[in-house]
Amino acid sequence: MISYSGLDEIDALLELIDNAIDWRHSGRVLNIRFVVNNYDELLIIDNAMGMTIKNFKKMFMLYNQDLDGPQGRSGICGYGTKAALKKLCSSEKTKHSIITKHDDDNYYTQTTDWNQVTTMDKAFPIYDSSPEEIGLFKQYNNNQSGTIIKVGLTEDLRQILDQQFENKIEKDLKLNKYFSIVYNVHNDINIDYKYKNNITNPLVFVSLFSQENEQYLNGMDGNKRIIVRIKYNKKTQQELVYIKKNNKYYYIHKRGGNCPSKPIGPKDNLPHISIDEHHEELEFVQHLCCLKPDDSYYNPEKPSLPCETGLTSRDNYRTQFFGTSINNEINGKMLVCRNDSIIGNIPIGKIAVACGKGTAKDKFQKIHVSSQLDYNTTSNQKDVSDFYMHTQKNKHQYEKKDSRKALWRMCDYNREEFSNELWYYIDTESQNYTKKKAIDTISNAYRVYKFKEHIQNKINIKTATHQTLVSNVSRSPSPVQAPVSTVSRSPSPVQAPVSTVSRSPSPVPSNRSSEPLASRSPSPSNRSPVSTVSRSLSLDPVPVSTVSRPLSLDPVPVQVPVSLTHSSPEPIAETHDEIQIKRIRILTEDVSLDQETRYAVNWMLEQYEMKCNEIL
Asked: pLDDT value at position 515?
């Protein structure tokens, strides 16, 4: 009898979807619909090729291999479909019906009540479809080929469908149980769900590796594929896993239980491995990508090295499916894709632990870098790729054995190298941004310095001109001065007191000798007798301003606005020492600087060296 051991309801639905994908029309979009009618029946409808009467009968032959069908199918006829139908009809609703139509054949129907199946003989009768069944088929398939599978809707099935089309990835379910992830590689498939009279919910695929270049960190460099080749001896279990990079080989040579932890390379040639009838060569493709993080993790406009060590999703694309908390199914793990369908994942390296060991760079590699391993097989139970990967019969699971550790370690090495390249890009961008900010700050300070220097030069010129004018005025004779004889014979009717003028000391300029002005005149023995009187008496009234402020040879001080006075750059803090000088010296060695910027950087270096009073 047929067993569905190892299958659950989700696996059963995946098996039926696989059948439609395997037999879809080339070049035509495949539509798969889940429809619940008012009779609480679930209809699974597709517009694939449908089945001829011959293929319809083969489907119910146990362990039959249909090797004449399309290549690259996920499974073979004779096992998965019957087990899936039995699983879906194992509860209180035990009956299923199938209506199919091929372009080159008629409408056929097959109906079975699994409660009444006691033997395989005549358990799956096939007959011509009735007018009512043909009408039901045309209602959904519009006279095209395809298949409709009808089973009873249980509460468990309804919950599964609601969860699948919610387009959210829950933590309690493995990734190879979600339609949106399992079939994300296909770009010509539409899957939707309609419950009675409710609106139709389309399935949104989680396509990590097929986004536009601008959705990845560093554009197209944030999405990469690497071909991994394997030379494998099924008898001796000897493996040679290798990649080729820059025309050099990197390889892991596994002999028995001895498997190196890291690849050897670069090498010009591969090591010798014996080739006999047990020798096989396999090819895998590893996809690596880093979706563009949000600005809180890394902002390309203001780049800086991330310091985040938590386990949170920081890109907008994955957040819409997984939320902000990292699902354990993607923490340090790699998806495994067989014939364009995800069949599970595998841990490569150690997983990231929140607040545990590991730097921000380690967490970046394990959380933000996604990986997927693709391989293709034939529709044969003895396919060597399935044998190597330990794929199980239902084709949606595989045994995670350590015997494939050479492949896993090569994939871990590829992910680490890819992560290092992106981290180097972030580091370079951060350093360039920091250097640009430093150069801009220095250039702005240098422009302010040159502006103030220009203003100060103008002030100095005006001050010197004014000083010259004042000095000339102080040395010229008084325009109103009486002859000596007149002054000595008749006193002036209006005469300032002698003591007012003659005793007023001349101000002593700060920049001249402290000797009194009188001491600079000739000695008393040579002085005219009336000289004292001439200084004290005048025929004309003396203006008050002249009396109160005697002339001086010194310039009148000029009040300069504070904003225009020359000042040196802002005082440098005590912490700006040799480290700052080293950093600026690095900038001076940058050959990309233009002449003006180089002047500014050298000027700033001089300011720091003067402040620190030393040159490193």
From this structure: 42
